[in-house]
Amino acid sequence: MEFQLYTDVVLVRDVPEENLRAGDVGTVVELHQVAGREIGYSVEFFDLLGNTVAVTNLPASWLRAPTHADRLAVRSDLVAA
Predict the structure, then answer these.
(1) In this structure, is residue 73 part of a structural domain?
(2) Span 31-43, pLDDT tens digits
(3) What's the domain count of the chain?
């Protein structure tokens, strides 16, 4: 699937090295096309306050478009004391 710049996408698999999980929502900020390879995107992920938590390059197959069935949820990186 191809995505337009500055649209929201949903991650479909975990990216542990970036502390991202399937279901996280990000914004496409760059398109990467290389002949003979899968299209890729730079995607920026934010916290609910608008702070960037990760910008990472991902293949299109790791992303999907949001649907009306999707609902926002909250998960915290903080461990309860």
Answers:
(1) no
(2) 999 999 999 999 9
(3) 1
49 in a structural domain:
yes
| Residue 55 burial (10 A CB sphere; 0-12, 13-18, 19+) | middle
* Contact (CB, 8 A) for 54 and 45: yes
Q: Which residues contact 23 (CB under 8 A, 6 or more apart)?
A: 10, 11, 73
Q: Kindly report the CATH number assigned to the domain that includes residue 47.
A: 2.30.30
Instruction: Measure the CA angle with vertex 79, ends 72 and 66; round to 5°.
Output: 15
- Token reading at 46: 């934010």
Domain span at residue 44 reads 8-64
pLDDT reading at 9 higher than 80: yes
